[in-house]
Write the C-alpha cells for this entry.
Amino acid sequence: APAGVQAHQRAFAFEPAKKLSPAPGSMLQRDPPELLEPDLLENPYVLSDEQLVAVRDRVLGPLRRHDGTGFTTRIRSLSATEASALLDDEAFWREIRPIFRGRALWAVYTILYFNNRLREPDLRLSVNFRANDPYGFMDALSIVVQEIRPRQYYEILREAAAYEFSGSPQRNQILSMISQRNAPGAVERLAVSTRQVHYEENEAGDQELHLYGRQVRRMTVYETGGQLRVVLRIRFISAANPRQSYYFFPDPATPERWRAAIERYWNGKFILDNGVKRLRFTVAPLFYYESGPAVDKEVSIMEDDELSCPHSSDPGRANAGCWFTQSSDETVAHEFGHLLGAADEYNLPGSIAEIPADIRSQLTAEDLEFTTMEGITGRRRRKREGGYDISSLMGSHSRSTDVKARHIRLLVRNINGRLPDGTPHYRIIEL
C-alpha cells in the first residue's frame, strides 16, 4: 500500500468509534427493525445492484486517491442499510484487504457491522486489540463468544488477530480460541450459589446470628496458556440513581487501583492440578460503565463513607454489591472474594449445632462447611459471644490478606462438575 495509506491505516486503527447512547433496555442491532425481514421486491431499505455500486464507489473513492481521512469520513457516515450492504459486498472487501491489516481491518469491519455503535463487550475486545494486550483480548473474547455473531465476524477477527499478534507467544492460543469457540468446554459460564451466617449486633446492642440471603455468583471461565482464567464483569452504578452507570470517580485512578489490588491478592496463589494438567488460577475483573451488556455483578458506588450502603446500618461499610470511593484495596479484594463464592470469616458460630434450627434448615451442607468454625476447621468450638474470627483476607478483624484453598473450593467444585466423564478432578494447591 502507498506510504500515505499505510500512515492512515495506523491512525485509523486508533480512531475511537463514535459512541451513541441508546434508550435504556434497547438492543444493539446492525439494522433498523424494517430490515429484519426484508422483502426484496418492495422493501425500500434493500439496495439495488446499482445503488450498491454507487455506495461502494462513494466510500472507496477517497481511498483510491490516497485520502485516508476522506475514507474515514465516508465510512462513518453510512446509513445502517448502506453499511449492511457493504458488509456482504465481496468487491468491497477485495479492494480493502490489500490495504488494511490487523486492527485496521478490524476497525473497518466493526464500523460497518455496528454502524458506529460499538459497545461492550466488543468495545473491550477492540480496545485490547489496539493495546496489543493478548490476555486482555482473550478475556474480552471469552465474553464475546457468548453473544450471537455471524460467521464473517469471526473470519475477519481471526484474520486480523493472526496479523496483529504475529509476534506474540499467545498468537496460536488466540487463534485456537476463535476457531474452537463453540467446542464443548472451550468457554464455560458458571454460577456458584452461597448462603452464610455470622453474628451481628442487633438494635438492642446484642450479638445475634444473622442469616444472609442466598447469592448466585456468575462468571466466565476458560483455559489458556497454562492458566485457568476466571472473568467477572462488574458494572459500576450510581448509588444515588441505580439506573445510571457510575463514571466519574473523585480520583480517576480508583478503578485501576482496585483492579490491580484484586489481581495482586488473588492471582499467583493457587495451582489447579488433576495429574494431567497444572493450571495457574487467575482472576480477570472487567469493569463496565454502560448498561448494554449483561454483567455478572452490578456494584453501587457511594462517595460519602459517612453514609450506609442499602440494607446496612453501618456507615462506610462496603459489601459485595456496594463499594465506597474511599474503599481500601483490601476491602475491595475481600468483596471480590464473595463474587468468587468465598464466605465471610468473621463472627462465625463455633459449631453447626450452635445455629438455631429454623436458620440451620435453610442452609445446605455446603453452606455449613464454609460459614462455621466446625465446617472450616473440622473441629467444634464452644459458643462465644460475637463468634470467632479467622485470620485471612475474608476475615474482618485482622490485617491478614492470606487467601486459602477453601476460598475458591466452591468454584473449583463447579468446574470439576463440568468436566467430561472420566476426566480427573482438579485439586487446589496453595502456593
